[in-house]
Amino acid sequence: MRIGELARRTAVSERSLRYYDKLGLIAAERTSGGHRDFPESTVGRVIRIQELFAAGLCSEKIGWLLPCLNDPGEGPAETATPELAEVLQVERDRIDRMIGDLLRSRDVLDEVIDEARAVH
Amino acid sequence: MRIGELARRTAVSERSLRYYDKLGLIAAERTSGGHRDFPESTVGRVIRIQELFAAGLCSEKIGWLLPCLNDPGEGPAETATPELAEVLQVERDRIDRMIGDLLRSRDVLDEVIDEARAVH
DNA sequence: GTAGGATCTGACACCGGTGTCAGATTCAAC
DNA sequence: GTTGAATCTGACACCGGTGTCAGATCCTAC
Lengths: 120, 120
What we know:
The structure is a homodimer.
Chain A: H1 3-10, H2 14-23, E1 29-30, E2 36-37, H3 42-54, H4 59-65, H5 82-119
Antiparallel strand pairs in A: 1-2
The structure holds a DNA duplex.
């Protein structure tokens, strides 16, 4: 599919998609004229990439991680090396702490919002 | 307490603490020589601020939110206006989606890590 | 008083994903 | 062919919390 459709279906800007392509996080065939042609499976991959960005992983580590995922439509997954697993473990723990932070912050907001609702 | 001790106890850099002070997120007395002197309650407040930053709130909204919290050692909490509550609701929902993203990302990492452990 | 550590202010830079623009080229429909 | 929409590349800028440095001043213990 073309980049426009991919952008629509993933709610990610064409700018970002071209950036992902340049980094090698997604791959596209090219038409004779040079336009990108993405396979269907790229939709899921882009969404996954966005989630990982949101989780604070940098593009480099995402690039390491992606080959180890077995997403439908992608080739067979590689197995992470022990070195990569170690890196990912650090990220995993960071994400875990982050989830804790977010839960606490969500609770704080809920309290303030509920209080406002009760009064006004 | 002095900024050095506050930095040690919160694991937040002096640079950031001065920044929070400048923004009015935390408040300090000043010694006759101009050095900041923070009350004990600032420790908890700084940690809270860090959590809210981690949750993606900008300093401006944190500044709106903080007066509505009743933290030990701080003065009586204000009640959020309906306008503020609306703003916070948007943030709250964003955080909620973010938590979902993070849980998915954590699961992805766990899978890859476990697979690597199993093989090597 | 004095030395050495702590703190002060101000300024500059970074990070890295994203927005946006310009100008050229391609695609698809008529 | 032609035309309008879509896509291409490349470049510049932003954001906003944080790191870091310089030079001056303060504080505390001797």
